[in-house]
Amino acid sequence: MRIIAGTRKGRGLLSPHWSGLRPTSDRLRGTLFDILGPGIAEVQLLDVCAGTGAIGVEALSRGAAHVTFVEHDPRAAALIRRNVDLCKFADRCTIRCGDFTKTARRLPTGFFDVVVLDPPYDASNIDEILTAAVEHVAPTGVLILERARRTEVNAAPGLVSLRAVRAGDSVLEFFEPVTRG
Q1: So what's the pLDDT on residue 180?
Q2: Positive or negative CA dihedral for 39, 42, 46, 52?
Q3: Coil, strand, or helix at residue 42?
Q4: CB-CB neighbours of 167 under 10 Å
Q5: Are 58 and 83 in contact (CB under 8 A)?
Q6: How much is the pLDDT for 122?
Q7: Which of 113, 143, 146, 181 has the most CB atoms within 10 Å of its CB?
Q8: 1 contacts 140 by C-beta, under 8 angstroms
Q9: d(CA 151, CA 137)
């Protein structure tokens, strides 16, 4: 696992030494950032179910102003901290350890330009996570859900699906707030 582009291009990231954590592949991360393009510069990004932190760290390398990582597993939150420190991005991020549906209440509403949700593919509460994230997307922001191809989700109230990009067994689904109208 490595950073694909930006100021830390080529830098290796630490991977988990335990099972049950599925880091987003370099290829899928590349697809995500190819779609987001240069618009990632100076954004406020929320990385939910952040795992290793690879998506948020990639965003920081590409110029994101700040990333808030939310991860429920304390081991993964510690791994995110190590990856952030390795890349010297500690001053541009916040790491919160806890269940997102509860942690979301303590985050600013309508603040994040980009919200990335990467819950475990077999999570039973994907709709709940999606619903909890809606209020945190800025009016002109975008929410991206990484999910298994076999998993269908309904757009949460307040979001409209823009597109779904399939890559192998994964799908990146892009949503925008309905209020954009």
Answers
A1: 54
A2: positive
A3: coil
A4: 15
A5: no
A6: 81
A7: 143
A8: no
A9: 23
Chain CA centroid to CA 174, Å: 12
Task: Return the residue matching tokens 């076999």.
Answer: 150
Give the helix/strand (H/E) hosting 97. Answer: strand 93-97
Residue 70 to residue 17: CA distance in whole angstroms: 20
Q: In this structure, what token pair is assigned to residue 52?
A: 């290793």
> From the first residue on, what is the mean pLDDT of each consecutive set of 10 residues in the chain (181 residues)?
95 87 84 94 97 97 98 96 98 97 92 95 87 95 94 85 91 88 51
Both structure tokens of 29? 């991360």
The amino acid at 54: A
Cα–Cα distance, 121 to 135 (Å, whole number) = 23
Q: Note the residue count of the chain.
A: 181
Q: Structural domain boundaries of the chain?
A: 26-180
Phi-psi region of 153 (alpha: psi -120 to 50; beta: other; left: phi over 0): beta
Alpha-carbon distance of 55 to 58, in angstroms, equals 5
Question: Would you say 104 and 133 are in contact if contact means Cβ atoms under 8 Å apart?
Answer: yes
- The yes or no reply on domain 26-180 and CATH 3.40.50.150 is yes
